[in-house]
Amino acid sequence: MDFYSFLIQSLNALQYGLLLFLVASGLTLVFGIMGIINLAHGSFYMIGAYLAFALTSLTGNFFVAILLGIPLALAFGAALEALLFAHLYKRDHLEQVLLTYGLILIFEEVRSLLLGDDVHGIPVPEIFAASIPLNDTLSYPVYRLVISAVCIVLAVGLYWLIQRTRLGMMIRAGSHDRDMVQSLGIDINRIYRTVFALGVALAALAGMLAAPISSVFPGMGSQVLIISFVIVVIGGIGSVWGALIAALIIGFADTFGKVLLPDFAGLIVYLVMAVVLLWRPEGILKKG
Amino acid sequence: MNPTSQRLILPLLLAALLAFPSFGSDFYVELVAKTLVLAIFAMSLDLLVGFTGLVSFGHAAYFGIAAYAVAMITPKYDPASLWLALPAAIIAAGLAAFVIGLFVLRTKGIYFIMVTLAFAQMVFFLFHDTNLGGGSDGVNINFKPDAAIAGWAPFDLNEPGQLYYFIVAALVAVYGVLKLVLRSPFGRVLIGIRSNEHRMLSLGYATFYYKLAAFTLAGALAGVAGFLYAVLSGFVTPELLAWHQSGNVLLMVILGGMGNLVGAIAGAFAFTAMQEAFGAWTKHWQLAMGLAIVAAVLFLPGGLSAIPARLKRAMTGEEK
Fold it and tell me: Which regions span the lipid bilayer (chain B) (predicted)?
């Protein structure tokens, strides 16, 4: 592998890992703070991608689609929390698994009813459609760099939100002791709703950003869901920074696995997880 | 269900199963046979979820490994011997469960759910991406296993009727094995682990090895179901190992009420009935299924087998 191919693969791995981080960060927050295992989290990624597709065809502009899509995803997340997930906090994990499994079936069928089962594509927006030439034959698409940049900005924003704001303080306190936070006069239910809506919006945004580079197809949610599970396990449940590290590890392992060992590409991610679990059964960064 | 009524109802249910082929059409005999295979699968998972308190979300892996073992052991132009294929399938599934169990049992709670899922995905990709078992297309099993011992054949699995009774016999056998295990001191320890693992540890039980044994046994029994599924359908695809399959079997166990073997069987029947009823009604049957699941979680905690007790409470006006 020469230097430029290596550079391209590294940038791809970085972009893929950062995108996965957007999905996994919401998942790990919902796990860590609300104690909810949400199998339907991958569906939010799928919904985001289809939202981008539907809104782009309606408005004719990808950026308008994203600007409309984010508040829609936030509202959708808040409504879902109020209607369904709020009833799950005191239930055991098994019932959470069951309910969210039922949700996957519902989301997939509703998608199929509304938009059909065809594979769709969205053109890369024109401003970012260019490629940066690396040498005579190889070049790198600008849009992938844009995705990475957006993800990095969001990761920094998330760090600031959780570590530096009053809301973040309440979120962190809520993950330690729900009852104590409530008795201090903080409405924990509103914090849960905010966190959940935030998680849904992050996953949906990841789906919207990914739509122009990966096609929009029916099974895309479950694929991302399981990889995100692996990331949350490797990173340690509830740890956003663990999720970031783990997402990058998985991004690189998967991308380079596909290049170097194409026959076993699907397996490598899970092998990485097995090794990490042998080393640290509770993930790289245990929640603290 | 209390023990006395269970003692009365079980023989009746078995008699109904045995008599069914004489009045059911071929289509329904095959459907019931398929459901019984799922019932064995659900009972094997119930040993983990219901009795040991281990929520495995990757149980399809062992089901699928056993099915693939049948496909691999069957030569292209000849049937395999039943007495070779059945143990091979069970051992393959049990061995896989043992090895995976060594990893996954190091984790607990949510981790356990996700890690079992992830390992099952690993097995899925092993069969889906490599040419080990025909890749994503799957493999045909051209011949059903041959039951002959030294030239004498006690029964013939090519006969749908005989295959049906073979599956009923397997169901009874698996039920019996699980009942014996649960009644033994070993089973008591498993139930103890479900209620309070720390206490069992401090009583001096090495709970890890008990859980590993239960995980291996559950995998091997799922292997029985996987074997029967492969024989019944004559076709094996990676879909058998997919996580939807793990989700469905978990659904059966919960639908029937956990920690109740008869409940697991009822759950398998309820699942098939829902699938058939919704499927006849609309091609988007999964939507109805999803809504039913969500409604069941919200309004019916305890599953189907809790209904009699709830009705009784409602009728006598007793408080919980």
Answer: 83-105, 110-127, 163-182, 203-229, 249-273, 285-307
pLDDT digits (tens, 9 = 90+) for B131-174: 777 777 888 888 888 887 777 777 888 888 889 999 999 999 99
With CB atoms and an 8 Å threshold, state whether B301 touches A108: no
Chain B residues 1-20 with a CB less than 8 Å from chain A: none
Q: Do A282 and B258 touch (CB under 8 A)?
A: no
Rg, Å, chain B Cα set? 20
A contact set with B (CB within 8 A):
31, 37, 39, 84, 87, 91, 93-95, 97-99, 101-106, 108-110, 112-113, 222, 226, 229-230, 232-233, 237, 263-267, 270-271, 273-274, 277-278, 281-282
Which chain B residues are closer than 8 Å to A226 by Cβ? 117-118, 121, 243
Residue closest to B170 by CA, chosen among B43, B25, B10: B43
* Percent of chain A with pLDDT strictly greater than 90: 45
Q: What is the CATH number of domain A3-279?
A: 1.10.3470
Confidence label for B319 from pLDDT (cuts 50, 70 and 90): very low
Which pLDDT belongs to residue A127?
84
Who contacts B32 (Cβ-Cβ below 8 Å, separation ≥6)? B17, B20, B24, B164
Q: Which regions of chain A does DSSP assign to beta strands (E)?
A: 131-133, 139-141
For residue A264, the model assigns a pLDDT of 78
End-to-end distance of chain B based on CA atoms, in angstroms? 17
Domain spans of chain B? 3-316
Whether pLDDT at B108 is above 70: yes
Q: Compute the average pLDDT of residues B8-27.
A: 83
Beta-carbon-side half-sphere exposure of residue A159 (alpha carbons within 13 Å): 11
Alpha carbons B148 and B145: distance in angstroms, whole number: 9
Q: Coil, strand or helix: which one is B149?
A: strand
User: According to the CATH classification, is domain B3-316 in 3.40.50?
Assistant: no
Domain range list for chain A: 3-279
pLDDT at B292: 84
pLDDT at B2 (0 to 100) = 57
Mean pLDDT of B272-289: 83
